[in-house]
Amino acid sequence: MKIQMMKHLTVNFSRIFLILSLLCVAAPGCRKGNVVSSPQKLKGAYKGYNLVLVSLDTLRYDRLGITGYKAPTSPMLDTWSRDAIMFDSMISNSSWTLPAHHSLFTGQFPTVHSANYPGARLANDKVTLAEVLNRNGYDTCAWTGGAYVSRGFGFAQGFAHFQEVGDSKELIMDELVDLSTRWLENRNPHTPFFLFLHSFDVHVPYTPPTEFLPPFEPIPTSSVDATDPFTLLRIMNKDITLKPPDLEYLNKLYDAEIRFVDHQLGRLFNALDRLRLTDRTIVVLFSDHGETFQDHGLIMTHAYTLYEEVIHVPLLIRLPGLTEGLGLRRQSLVQTVDLMPTLLDLLGITISDSKVLMLGKSLLPVIAYDEPVNQEVFAETNYNNHLQKFPRMFPGRKHTATRVIRTSEYAYILDEINDVEELYSIKNDKHQQQNILNESPAVVSELKPKLKRWMSAVSALSGARTDAEMDPETVKMLQELGYIDKSGSKKQ
Ligand SMILES: [Zn+2]
Fold this sequence. Notes:
Blueprint: H1 2-26, H2 39-42, E1 50-56, H3 75-80, E2 85-87, E3 90-91, H4 97-106, H5 110-113, H6 129-135, E4 139-144, E5 161-164, H7 173-186, E6 193-199, H8 231-236, H9 244-274, E7 281-286, H10 308-311, E8 315-318, E9 328-330, E10 334-335, H11 339-346, H12 364-369, E11 377-381, E12 402-406, E13 410-415, E14 420-425, H13 441-460, H14 472-480
Helix pairs in contact: 7-9
Zinc ion binds near residues 58, 97, 288 and 289.
Protein name: Sulfatase
Keywords: Signal
């Protein structure tokens, strides 16, 4: 009886869903509950619109008010997000800056674009989102935090104006907003623009301005040096014993940096309003990876593992005339490589260049009515050759090439080199504390072959390795951010 009732409800729900979808095909700007449009209507709906893409480097998904965090990190974004779509199941294709950002700009997985090891740069023959937009008449401008998001690593491709700002010890989001505002004020108003902003403000070192600390007080005193990225090494090797107040101290500094960024984003959106650009501009906020706070031992870093705290990231998209006031949430699985095909679809730009190989999927069905386009998504990290510095965390491991296949229910992690496998239930254990590999052989037998097939496929598409030539300034910044150790050798 119950089964029959369930079938009846399912049929009815499907019928309602179909009717709503058909209505949306017929009527522009249709908004029926969770259904806001149709993929067919969204395709090209923003032709000639501007695009602002902001990368909030190292921002965890779970540190915003909108995602349930209790501390007041994001009052502005919590309000602004009511006019945007929040993608609650966004997985970054890598857990560190360089490969994750190139996946954003190429629509390719790290193994395919091959800028996936410390010191790699994007090959010149790869075609980026900025290049496609520039070729289609867009004025392209980028202000970045430098280091791994710099000219030397291939990020200037396609930008008419590309500038690295500040150094790793300063927070730069205020300066990025000032520079962007001046640029927006002086640009040719008859040309659509693509503005890309990136900052390491919530990355180590944790140095929030003092005026952003009060919302998080009381802040415990601590002798831990939050400004030294190599504090991590000393903590992990037990030269420093981290006590609960130390952990709280580091968390609150990180939170205060998010609050600073939140405030500056508010200034950016106000500038768009003042310049009457909001109604003609798609805004995308995303993070390239999260950060560890001893979720799985490590702290103040991200590149070594593929657990949720480093690959589950926020993604917000504001679409003028469609998403205002709805506070839309989307639960379907999405990944970084999906962004480029999605944005080009929205902007009505078709690709004729055979060199463009986008491996993600357009998210128009997810935007329209949360219809899944990915049954599973993937992430990988080759941040290796440095694990021996964490003997307690990675006993016996010197090199790794870790991959994860993530479904809405499970995460299966495989490190083939070290023969390490893990399986976690996302639904029952979202913090991934219980490895259920041995208890769930049926799940492993389903996910492991899928992951191996994906690994074979991306390996077959892998490009040639291209090493970056790093100038002394870039080397210094990478040292300060913890990517290269003080001896100058690459922290791999
Ligand atoms: Zn990063």
